[in-house]
Amino acid sequence: MSRHESSRPEPGQPVTRNTDAHHELSIRVRDLSLWYGQSQALKNINIDVYQKNITALIGPSGCGKSTFLRCLNRMNDLIPSVRIEGLVEMDGRDVNAAKMDEVALRRRVGMVFQKPNPFPKSIYDNVVYAPRMHDLVSRKPEQDELVEKALRDAGLWEEVKDKLHQPGTSLSGGQQQRLCIARAIAVQPDVILMDEPTSALDPISTATIEDLMDKLKQQFTIITVTHNMQQAARVADYTAFFHLGEIIEYNDTRTMFANPATKKAEDYITGRYG
Amino acid sequence: MSQSFDDISAQLRRRHRQSSRLKWISMGALGLAGLFLVLFFADMLNKGLPAFQQTYVEVELTYNEDATRMGRAAMEPEDAKIVSRSFERLIPGMLRDDPDLLGTTETRWVLANGEVDQYLKGNRNKLSEAERQAVDEKVESGQVALKFNTTFFTEGDSKMSERAGIMAAAVGTVMTMLVTLAIAFPIGVMTAVYLEEFAPDNRLTQIIEININNLAAIPSILFGLLGLAIFINFFGVPRSSPLVGGMTLALMTLPVIIIATRTALRSVPDSIRHAAFGVGCSRWQVVRDHVLPLAMPGIMTGSIIGLAQAMGETAPLIIVGMVAFIPDVGASFTQAATVLPAQVFTWAGEPEQAFVEKTAGGILVLLAILIFLNATAVVLRKKFERRW
């Protein structure tokens, strides 16, 4: 079987270029290592994430894919024992630099979590809270407009337009997750991080979210962690395979699934371990 | 070798007996606790309910010249024997305030003295045989009767049992609790917010935490000594005042509020904090907009229970001088005042028979307020309980 290892390009770039996707750089990661206390969770991660694509991070449990995702909006700052080395660069700026404000970073890099976690407020307030906080809108008509746009983009408007003032927690799981997506896109970020966004949902809600991700990539760069290889194959333009804190293979999704370059990735994709 | 059902049943019988024995023992313990509670309440109600009634006499008052100097002169001599001396002493003042009364007569119901009151209630009293007969006659003719005791709820303390009331103590309690709340609530909540949401987990914060927990277990009288040494002697806060009492009780309530607030903050799921950080909230916005509103019911419940505990406290207030004879309803935070449990304590030390019922009556009022506060805490908790 032929391998691509001989043609490996610059560190951090996919093995083969997907020729029909955008190739503008969004986030550049070089030699990123992360420790929880003494134990190293990420080892020399190199990856270039491209704008307006979906990049999926796959790999067995505990391989560091969620940890890596949280490095991109500095959510790991909340864990006191974490130590980070290396470069995460966005817009030419090191996001871990002392003068980078993590609030500004999270304003441009939104996040959707594994379990739907709407605020225990109304649907309307869930969406409008962050834009109001960041002073993006102030007058009531602007707010209404923004809420409608965000909910429409999240594919939730038709379902909730008559009950905007009911609590967000009263929705079904799949609707709650789309509300969380609406909340994330309401501040018009550049990047949306999704940490296993469908793992708590039923297959129909999962399909709805996958369709939604496909639409959203026209506006946003999406990086998603998933446990579900079929999902990565279905939605992602690029896929990075993590194993024991390292990126073993990073490739465009079609190549990754059809013709993986490494034995480990192939074994994982074909279901020999996971 | 396998066991038959009969073998297993034989072993099980012993285990079942054991568990049923334990069940009966624990039910017995519960029953005993319930019995003590019922006995306590029955005794308090039995002793205290008479305090809500007081004997009144219908007398004819002739406001003559002598009465301006000595109130007694306005009454028939035999009436004067059974009317409260506290009322006699009011007559000269009444005439001074309203000179038009002079030369008129009126018939009105006035407080009877404590001995007559105790006689009517069937308690031990110092009335002579002849006096008892005279009172009996007046009861027959409807000129002496037990009525609802408004005095108990409108007056301060008095050395004359029939005039002693809890109003001064109740107002003192309210003012003291206001001071306690105003100091302990903001400091306690903000301390808990800092420790729970901002502080790094290091040796120093661990020591602070341990000591806050220890503080909650310190005998309350030590807080009284602290109040005396620091607030009164060092800062010169007026002694016996609701201000110093409230400050002292605030010290005692602080650890309770801090611990309750931390528990409430900890019960807010991290997913809410992550969601808030995820949309770009600063740490303070996370706390103010998301965590605190969700924790508020728990904080309120804890604070109300802490306040109820402080309200029932007497020991530290003895040291700062709030256990005192206070006949007037206080008007400012720096005047001498007393509080309900201290009033009960004062009455419990009075030698007259009539103060037994006042003591129990005071306890009933205090209990009613505490039950009301605790019920409020339960209702708040139920009403704002949130499920995730």
From TrEMBL, chain B:
Domain ABC transmembrane type-1: 170-376
Subcellular location: Cell inner membrane; Cell membrane
InterPro entries reported in the protein's UniProt record: DUF3333 (IPR024573), MetI-like (IPR000515), MetI-like_sf (IPR035906), Phosphate_PstA (IPR005672)
Gene3D superfamilies for the chain: MetI-like
Ranges annotated as spanning the membrane: 21-42, 166-195, 215-237, 243-265, 317-340, 360-380
Membrane topology per record: Multi-pass membrane protein
Protein's UniProt keywords contain Transmembrane helix: yes
Main location (coarse class): membrane
Coiled coil: none
NCBIfam families: 3a0107s02c (TIGR00974)
UniProt family annotation: Belongs to the binding-protein-dependent transport system permease family. CysTW subfamily.
Descriptive protein name: Phosphate transport system permease protein PstA
Organism (species): Halomonas rhizosphaerae
Species lineage: Bacteria, Pseudomonadati, Pseudomonadota, Gammaproteobacteria, Oceanospirillales
